[in-house]
Amino acid sequence: MKMSLVASRHRTLIALVVVLVIVAGVVSVAMAQPGPQQGEDGARRGGDMRAMMMRMAPPIMEVSGNAVFLFRGNTLYKFDADTLELLAQTELPMPQPPAPQ
Predict the structure, then answer these.
(1) CB-CB contact of 46 with 57 (8 Å)
(2) 83 part of a folded domain
(3) Of 26, 33, 37, 51, which residue is the least packed, with the fewest Cβ within 10 Å?
(4) Is residue 41 situated within a structural domain?
(5) 13, part of any domain
């Protein structure tokens, strides 16, 4: 009877230590993450998730008639389908985040 009480206390102590280690790990990782940087104009940098997603997105390619269109990042390219010569290229504006309310 006394042994089961000691074993129960040991399990409770071990569970408490495991929970504390997990919480300490989560807190240390959260504290190590850099915050958004502010530029000279006071604008936040590094916080626009949509711009980051556009840079990481795979390129998209479409063929229309005798032209090949390639969309990569925020740039659209137009190539001749026969020679693959670059005919045109344009940079599209990055989407702006909604204004804070």
Answers:
(1) no
(2) yes
(3) 33
(4) no
(5) yes
